[in-house]
């Protein structure tokens, strides 16, 4: 499969991994389980953001915080969820599970400021399967490239990959907001 672009259908077999927190105790992580993105994205407008790694300086300080800070603006433009993916395992990206899937992240997400009830979710693109499938790898071993995609009820309406590993221009919250 080649890189996705505006107008393409989002693939029907995309799964990420997440490790739900069994209760309010952040040390009580559940077993990592699949998150069927193709199914969960149906009927929703989702911003899918890929970063090279959790807690890395560019991702942690520059790329992810504007998505959390500006979620209200994204929501005003019809966005239901922002999903942040990295090749880190599900425990690092762990997300607290609640019945309604309106979750707060623990691991990297909690440290990044995603509050309880947040619709900014942190998941693992385990072994970079999805990013590799679309050819958007960082070129630094098994790391995702930095990119952003908007999926509206199964159709890609925006998909851009950064030209450099450290850049946050076409994949940043401001760029995505300007295209919604």
Automatic annotation (TrEMBL):
UniProt-listed InterPro entries: PRX5-like, Redoxin, Thioredoxin-like_sf
Keywords from the UniProt entry: Antioxidant, Oxidoreductase, Peroxidase, Redox-active center
GO MF: thioredoxin peroxidase activity
All copies of domain Redoxin, residue ranges: 5-177
GO biological-process terms attached to the record: cell redox homeostasis; cellular response to oxidative stress; hydrogen peroxide catabolic process
UniProt superkingdom: Eukaryota
GO cellular component, one term: mitochondrion
Active-site residues annotated for this sequence: 59
Pfam family, one: Redoxin
Coiled coil ranges: none
Function in brief: Thiol-specific peroxidase that catalyzes the reduction of hydrogen peroxide and organic hydroperoxides to water and alcohols, respectively. Plays a role in cell protection against oxidative stress by detoxifying peroxides.
Family per similarity comment: Belongs to the peroxiredoxin family. Prx5 subfamily.
Entry protein name: Redoxin domain-containing protein
Organism annotation: Meristemomyces frigidus
């Amino acid at each position: 499969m080649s890189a996705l672009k505006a107008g393409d259908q989002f693939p029907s077999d995309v799964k990420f991994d997440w490790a739900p927190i069994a209760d309010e105790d952040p040390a009580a992580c559940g077993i990592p389980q699949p998150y069927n993105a193709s199914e969960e994205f149906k009927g929703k407008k989702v911003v899918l953001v890929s970063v090279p790694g959790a807690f890395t300086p560019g991702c942690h300080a520059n790329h992810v915080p504007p998505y959390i800070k500006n979620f209200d603006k994204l929501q005003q433009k019809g966005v239901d969820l922002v999903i942040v993916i990295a090749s880190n395992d599900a425990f690092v990206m762990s997300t607290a599970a609640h019945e309604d899937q309106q979750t707060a992240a623990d691991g990297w997400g909690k440290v990044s400021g995603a509050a309880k009830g947040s619709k900014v979710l942190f998941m693992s693109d385990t072994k970079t399967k999805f990013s590799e499938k679309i050819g958007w790898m960082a070129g630094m071993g098994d790391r995702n490239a930095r990119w952003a995609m908007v999926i509206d009820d199964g159709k890609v309406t925006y998909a851009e990959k950064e030209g450099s590993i450290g850049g946050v221009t076409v994949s940043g919250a401001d760029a995505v907001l300007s295209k919604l």
